[in-house]
Here is the input.
Amino acid sequence: MSIATKTSTLESERHLVPLKTEYIIQQNCALLYKVQYYGVHAGIKNEHVFFDFRNATSQFPPSAFHQLMEAIPGKIDLLKNFVKCEEVAYMKLPTFKFIDHSGGQAFTLSGQNYFVDLNDNTCFFAVRPSPSRVWVIGATLAKTHPIVFEDESMYIL
Here is the structure.
């Protein structure tokens, strides 16, 4: 996977997007993936995905965010966003599979991608609802998937 930067109309920021020669880049530099939902909201949806590795947090479309919040026992205060890390291990969090246009699985988001361990038994909830109804995947993806930058000029993290 190679990474390139593109300027997006989403908040007028630069985003990092994975590029392969066979990918067709959609407008606003989003890639169109089929996203597999599991559980109560099972199904496959075609959705636009942006990558922003400058931020740990990811933004999920409302339906995916709602599914994630339903799986978290109690409510996470979105102003505080902290839980005890040992509680995360017992949560039955949803998995979202992203499938590229050729039908191959590109990547998966699961429990490890939703929280950041702050090394004091406190975990930060690193997911926000997307105001624009698209996926914006943050740096927590690197916890479970290798991210390769092939051009040194692209290191902007």
Observations:
- The chain has one domain: 2-152.
